[in-house]
Structure formats: C-alpha cells, structure tokens
Amino acid sequence: MTGVQALEHKYPDKLPLPGQCAKMEFEYIRHGTTSLIGFFDVATGRMEMPYLNSTRTEEDFVEAVKALAGTDPQAPWTFICDGLNTHKSEALVRYVAEACAPGMELGKKGKTGILKSMESRVDFLHDPSHRLRFVYTPKHSSWMNQIEIWFGIINRRTSTHTV
C-alpha cells in the first residue's frame, strides 16, 4: 500500500550550462493524493487487483484483501506485508476470523483476547492453519518486499519519463 501524489513542478527546469547538469526546482504544486493498494503475485510477476482510493484506512485494506481472496474463495492465500498498522488491524482480524474460524471469540481491542494488542493480532493473522495468512517483513527491510520493489521501479520510470 502506498500513497501516490500528483505533483507539478512550480518552475520549469533550467537547461544545463556546458559541463553542468540541468537544474530542477524543488518547489512543487500538490494536486492531491491517491492510495494504491497492490497485490504482487511473486510467482507470475504480475500486479493483481490494484485498488485505488482517496483514503488509506484499515477498511480500505480489508476491502482490497476481500476482493482478491474472493477471486478464489477456497484457495489458501499468503499475504506478505510490511508493518503498517492497517495490515494488522482489528478489521482485518475480524475478516480473517469470519473467513477461517467462524464463531471464534476475538476479545476486545486493547483489553482481551486476540484483539488485545497489535502483537496478539499479528500472531493470529500469521497462523499457518488459516486459509488467509499474513506474513510480515522485518522493520527497515523494504528491499525484501516485492511490492515495494515494484513501486520503486514504477517510481523511477515515471520520474525519468521512461514509462
């Protein structure tokens, strides 16, 4: 999941003088943002079901996961995510519990049970017995996350006008 900004440079680039690089103005005009939730299939190298929205809430993430998992409701799914709080949310736990362990007592957020803490929610979401399973990359390791690599490639290509 990432935010994509529509930016416009405030001033045009300055052409390079002999022996120098072009000068790019750092000021820009912001034309808004869009949240992109992407699912990268590492087996095929394809982006699956990209989800665009103006917000980046836990509900947005759950809706995107539901849409993807709904394409094959009986299949096992493993989602590799970074540590963003929306990837470990109460709403996500409730969805996974409904899909994998209906009727399971989840407790109360911040108080008891699976919903008690971020750590207890991660333990539940990471459970290998669930059909929907979430695996989290270590902190400071975006270089291991395939979707982050994909976003980086897209960013570099669009930044250098080579798409």
From TrEMBL:
<dbReference type="Pfam" id="PF13358">
    <property type="entry name" value="DDE_3"/>
</dbReference>
<dbReference type="InterPro" id="IPR038717">
    <property type="entry name" value="Tc1-like_DDE_dom"/>
</dbReference>
<protein>
    <recommendedName>
        <fullName>Tc1-like transposase DDE domain-containing protein</fullName>
    </recommendedName>
</protein>
<feature type="domain" description="Tc1-like transposase DDE">
    <location>
        <begin position="17"/>
        <end position="158"/>
    </location>
</feature>
